Structure formats: C-alpha cells, structure tokens
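seq:
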Amino acid sequence: MLLAEKLYYFTHGLCCMFFLYASIYLLYGKKAPRLRMVLGGVVVFWFLLEIKDLLLYSSATVRNTYFSTLLLMIDMLAVPACSFYLFELLSTGWMNWKRAFALSSFFILCLLGYAITASDSWLWILEIYATLYSFVVIIILCFAVRRYNRYVRENYSYTEHLNVRWLRQVTFLMFICLSVWMYSCLRSSWVADSIYYFSSLLLWACILYYSELQEVVPIADNIKMKKLFSKELAEEKKEEFVLNENLIQALHKSLREDELFLNPRITLADLAMTIGTNRTYLSTYLNTYLDTSFYDYINSYRMEKVCQLLSDPTCTATMNEIAETCGFNSLSTFRRSFVKEYGMSFAEYRRQMNKNS
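struct:
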C-alpha cells in the first residue's frame, strides 16, 4: 500500500471520529440551545457523509461510474446543510424543518433524477445550481451580517462573543476546502483527498471553537416584535416622538449618578427597564434624536470615566485595570474605543502624559 493511500485512510478515519465525537458533544443533553442543536444536526449529516465514503473503497461495485457519481451528488447536499447553520446563526429562530426542506428540495430532486435515469445531465444541473445557490447565499449573508451587526450595536453595550467576525476566517477555510474538493473530483488523487479531509477537519474545528464562544442573539424574534411595535409608533406619529422630560432625567441619572454603564453586560432592555420605558422607544430616541447606537452611547460614558481616571496624576492603574473599572468586558473593545476617542493607543497616551508632567 502506498504512503499516500495510507495517509488518505488515516485522515478519513480521523474526520469520521471527529464528526462522531462533535455530534455527541453538541447534541448531548435535552436543554441544548437551539443554535447548538442546528449545528449538531449539520455535524451529524457531515458524519454520515464521511461514513458514506467508506463505500468507495469497501466495494469494487460502488466505484463504478454510476455509484461514484451518485455518491458525489450526495456530497453536494452539504452545501444547503451548511447554510442552515449560517442562517440560524444570523437570524435565530428562522430555520425550521419546512424551510430546511425547501432549501434542499432541488438538490434532492436532482439526486433522485440521476438515481432513476442515470443521466449525467442531472449532475451538471446540480453543479450549476450548487454554484448559484452558494453565490446567492453569500450575497444574503453579506446583508444579514450587516443587519446583525447593526442590531448588536443598537441593543448591546459589548460585542465580545456577540460579533461574527470569525465568519471571515471560516469563509476562507471553506473556500480552500471546496477548491480542494472540486480538484479531487476532477482528478482522482490520494494526496488531494487527504488534503480535503484535513482542510475540512480544520474548517469544522474552527466553526466548533467559535460557536462554543458565541452568545445567541435572538434577532429574528426581536425584529418581529419591533415590526409589530412600529405599527403602534406609526399610529402615535413616530416622527414626532421624543422621550418626556421625566424619562430623560431618569436616563441621565441612571448613567451619570448610578453609573449603570459600569456593568460590562448591560443591554438596551436593561436600561429601558431601569428608567421605566420600552426598549423600542429608547432605541428610537438614541438612533433618531441622538444619532447614535446604544453601543456607542454607553461606551461614551465609559470613556468619560476613563478620562477622569487618567486625569488624576496619581493614577498608576494598568490598562487592564482601567478597562475593567470603567465597564469594558474586553481589552480589544477598550483599545478600539480608546483609539477612537483619543486618536492614539493607551500606551502612547500614557507616554505623552508622562512627558507633559
């Protein structure tokens, strides 16, 4: 047996064990979050795809043109399966069994068409459709990510483990994985197949790692509620709406005197409940009349606190201590806010203060 062939069997077996373990890990327990359940279902499907590939070298009959093409077309079902998780990630609650079937129905139709007729035309149709499907999903996700980020900034005072910047890394790995897969389909090679299994292993290890850190943002349900509430605002002449003086005073008191912004995980809903109003009213006030997001609004108070601390010549607190004291839940968020406020890094600002003193 060639070394390249041994490497193929090893990487394939490694992938099978990885997806089996990941499936058990994600789906174990009855109270797993919805996003985790969707990811677990997708990982189970990938595990079945890996097990299916065992047929390619377990039987000479399966390796003929008809069965190998059929198995290849089954692999393409991974395209809609991956999109299920991405849609659920960016719009929690949107995915359901009906939509999952609708998104994968044409893939299944082409698969059945080839299984019945053995015509290669179905393979070409499916390949073209899979390409178009991927292209459309990428466009949809671009808009969905922008909407998601806007929603986070309007409702949360922090973005750590809420943002989806890691999707860029995943997309890059997915591109490599698909490129190697297409090459291995065109030119049978033990090495190419081994690289494909290894790249898919890295891809899913990356997805699982970031998914475990990801906090669920119930954006789909909140958008529905916001649309319903906007009808009420429309009836009350939303364009003329402002917070009354008592609510504005309560807002300033909660932030100036009570310093609620020191809570690193404060949300728009928390602040709205504290001052006795609805979060949609408060969001409208911040976005329309103050022309800011909740994220920037809260961080502006945090940076004022930072300014107070740094203006004290006896302050010897480290950057990490100042960030934590002022309500920032991560150094990365603090650094970005500091540079935005002062136009320089924390270290540069400290050096400049030392020179002036």
